[in-house]
Amino acid sequence: TMLKKTKKRNKNKQVTVGDLDKALSSQSKTILREVDVKLESQTKAFDVKIDKAMESQSETILEALDFRFDKFSGEIKKDLGKKDNKINKILNQQDKILKKLTDLNDESVASFDLYKKHDKKIVNHEERILALEIKS
Q: How far lies 27's CA from each of 6, 17, 32, in Å?
């Protein structure tokens, strides 16, 4: 019965391109709205999944970096310890050399003072010997 009514209406009225455009436009808008709603919900779900995955990967990467930095830190401390030992040996050798130089300098000063004292005695002796030679 409904089919007969539709046929009757269609017989009485011709369908135009404008009528088809209106019908299609209305349906297109409805379909696009439904697609937008579905896409938006799927996009939100996808964003949540990506955020969780990124967070998990970030934590894994940070843990790996922490492990590597701890390892390198230990190696660096070990290397610095070895270098400190070498530097301490060098400084000890320098201290020994400085001590020897200081001792040599002290001896040099004492020797120079003794030289001046002996030089004065020698000059005095030469003068006395010359005076005795002149008298004789």
A: 20, 15, 8
